[in-house]
Amino acid sequence: MKIIIYGKGRLFQRYKEKLDWNEIVAIADKGAVKNEVIQNKPIILPQDIQRLQYDYIVIFSNRLFYDIRRDLIGEYYISPAKIVSWSFLINDVHETDIFMSIKTFIKELNIKMMLDTDMSIIPKHIFTLQELASDINVEMDGIGRQNNLSSRMIYRKIYGSFNDIHDFYDLIYVNNACVFDEHNLREKLRNKYKYILIRISYADYSEGKIAKLEEYFNKYADVKKLYMADSIYFLLQNEHKRDKKIDAHIFVITHRKYNVLHNDLYYPICVGRNYQEQEFLSEQNGQNISYLNEKLNECTAMYWIWKNTSCEYVGICHYRRYFYNNGILSEGNYLDREELSRIFQEYDIILPQYMVSQNRTVKEHLRLSINEEAYESGYKAIRKAMENHQPEYLGAFDEVMQGHKLFICNMFVTYHTIFNRYCEWLFSFLIEAAESVDVDRYDNYSKRVVGFFAERMLTVWLLKQNLKIKELPIDLLS
Question: How much is the pLDDT for 368?
Fold first, then answer.
């Protein structure tokens, strides 16, 4: 087996003496120095991974696991099945990490009644259910032996076997996939659960095994495969399926080659002059303002979507940034049609969780991030154009710029009718502002000053609307 290690930080230093160095091809790290070696193995930059032959890339980081994994998939087109956690090599995963993942699933899936089929993890970390976070209100039953008195403080009932189960559970936690075969759970749990969460240890990982399990589970449930830092989880959903034919397009805006989502929900659109992909949409076709992309960033794609599409729901994300369904942060849990259908039964628009800047105002934060002269010219251009076309919004503009809260990244999903209203408002002054600013003498980043102001305009506009907002977490790759 050929292994590339990713990361040479504290976790790697802790375990490097336990590694089989005959299997290791190289160590990848963004801080690689030319001619640096460890154990006679080269330290390489991530972009050099593609030159090497390997079976797996092993990430030696818990804190940055999600960021590194998503960057490997997107930036370098690495197969997701070939990216694993360090516990693939060192079977020393902390049960605390597994417990924290279970807590995340309970919270984010709004679980009220749970069946723990293992009873080996949870009792080690809590003495009573009240010790769980205040925002988790769950009751638990278990399967197994009542091997300590504290189990009575955690589990409502303790069953001897699966045959004794008669209740319905929001979540059934299974610590080992082979339990399905041993106990024929497919039949025994029919109509007794909303979700089944199955944990697979990286120490037991193989591409073939995971593929077979996914194929097996897909026969009788909707399945999400979630690669997390501590383990791999299969989430099986058995509830009545909502209408997945919701007429929605989420446009993935990209200005460079990247392994973006591309399916019947996510539609990549290329912007700018430097990158085109034949199978993707292009803002240069149809009604467009592509000539302003250097100044307006993703807003030129927004204009194209406004003028050239008509689906019922429309969304915008970016080549490195997507919405999650909830706080389960894995690429297997990006916003999907089922969650869209559920959300739009109650809400008008989906937005990223708003950002709070504690030490600086929104205005100060933007001013310090770009050329001072560019900031001043952009600010004057935006304010003058708003005075000409949307003067009633100047108070909201000042409130946002002098405040500390912002919906970032120009990301959203909403009804196309709401999107149309926003675009009619935004482009009534934005094009004029962009055309009035001469950016030729600024650096490439500062040239985008009007686009940076435009990103803040969604928050400005929302202050004077009466919309029900659903906030979701997003990818925030650096």
Answer: 95
Which residues of the chain are in CATH 3.40.50.720 domains? 3-88
How does DSSP classify residue 87? Answer: G
Q: For the domain 3-88, what is the CATH code?
A: 3.40.50.720
pLDDT tens-digit map of 12-37: 999 999 999 999 999 999 999 989 99
Contact yes or no for 271/429 (Cβ under 8 A):
no
What is residue 203's DSSP assignment? G
Least confident of 93-97, 337-341, 385-389, 445-449: 93-97
State the chain's mean pLDDT as an integer.
92
d(CA 29, CA 46) in angstroms, rounded, equals: 6
Euclidean distance between CA atoms 468 and 410, whole angstroms: 17
Nearest to 202 by CA among 233, 231, 224: 231
Digit-coded pLDDT (tens) for 178-233: 776 655 666 777 778 999 999 999 999 999 999 999 998 888 788 999 999 999 99
CA neighbours closer than 13 Å in the CB half-sphere of residue 16: 15
CATH architecture of the domain covering 95-237: 3-Layer(aba) Sandwich (3.40)
pLDDT, tens digit (0-9, with 9 covering 90-100), for 392-414: 999 999 999 999 999 999 999 99
Instruction: Report the Cα 299 to chain-centroid distance in Å.
Output: 22
Q: Which neighbouring-strand residues pair with 414?
A: 314, 349
Q: How large is the angle between the packed helices 394-401 and 362-369, nearest 10 degrees?
A: 70
DSSP string, 49-95: GGGS--SEEEE--STTHHHHHHHHHHHH---GGGEEEGGGTS----H
Residue with tokens 């299974």: 174
- Of 369, 391, 389, 395, the closest CA to residue 455 belongs to 369
Tell me if residue 165 falls in helix, strand or coil.
coil
Return d(Cα 170, Cα 280) in angstroms, integer: 40
Bin 61: left if φ > 0, else alpha if -120 < ψ < 50, else beta.
Answer: beta
pLDDT of amino acid 66: 93
Helix or strand or coil: residue 162? helix
Q: Is 191 left (phi over 0), alpha (psi -120 to 50) or beta?
A: left
Write out the residue limits of the CATH 3.40.50.150 domain(s) in the chain.
95-237
* Two tokens, residue 249: 């397009």
Cα(111)–Cα(108) distance, rounded to whole angstroms? 8
Q: Are 21 and 41 in contact (CB under 8 A)?
A: yes
Identify which of 96, 47, 100 has the alpha carbon closest to the alpha carbon of residue 74. 47
The predicted model scores a pTM of 0.92
For residue range 239-290, list pLDDT tens digits in order. 645 445 789 999 999 999 999 999 999 999 999 989 999 999 999 999 999 9
